[in-house]
């Protein structure tokens, strides 16, 4: 059972973050020539993003037992996807469009061959470790010649085939 907080009033007065989410077809265009893939799913994505101390009281809610405040980004805040996407893009800026694509909390590492892929994975995993961003290992897949990503099956022959359900 999960907790559901009604943030409609807070969302209504929040200045919208216009940070654009990437277009999926633009992400797929980058995969030309790739033959090896690894998919990394960041665990509880938004919960890895700390809230500024001054904004913590805005997330307050009460149960019949006590008062609570979020210290990390809860789901259902209007700017959560944009704020998290901005963080991940800043963390991986040097490597985006070279050997990885990111869509919110999903990371796809792609390479032309296994030697490149070993180095690319090492770089990505070291950055995740350094920045204390955690993956959900049970949802990660490594060293694949085809991968389901963002609802599509991507293969090493350059094809984006059919649809895939996560």
UniProtKB/TrEMBL annotation:
Residues 1-154 form the Reverse transcriptase domain. PROSITE patterns: RT_POL. This is Reverse transcriptase domain-containing protein. It comes from Punica granatum (Pomegranate). InterPro entries: DNA/RNA_pol_sf (IPR043502), Rev_trsase/Diguanyl_cyclase (IPR043128), RNA-dir_DNA_polymerase (IPR053134), RT_dom (IPR000477). It holds the Pfam family RVT_1.
């Amino acid at each position: 059972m999960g907790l559901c907080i009604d943030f409609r009033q807070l969302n209504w007065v929040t200045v919208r973050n216009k940070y654009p989410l990437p277009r999926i077809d633009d992400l797929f265009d980058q995969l030309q020539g790739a033959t090896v893939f690894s998919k990394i799913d960041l665990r509880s994505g938004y919960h890895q993003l700390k809230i500024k101390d001054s904004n913590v009281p805005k997330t307050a809610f009460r149960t019949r037992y006590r008062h609570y405040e979020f210290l990390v980004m809860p789901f259902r805040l209007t700017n959560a996807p944009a704020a998290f996407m901005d963080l991940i893009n800043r963390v991986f800026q040097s490597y985006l469009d070279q050997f990885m694509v990111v869509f919110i909390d999903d990371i796809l590492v792609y390479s032309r061959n296994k030697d490149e892929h070993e180095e690319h994975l090492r770089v990505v995993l070291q950055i995740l470790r350094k920045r204390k961003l955690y993956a959900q290992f049970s949802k990660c897949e490594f060293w694949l010649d085809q991968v389901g990503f963002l609802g599509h099956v991507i293969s090493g022959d350059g094809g984006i085939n059919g649809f895939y359900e996560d």
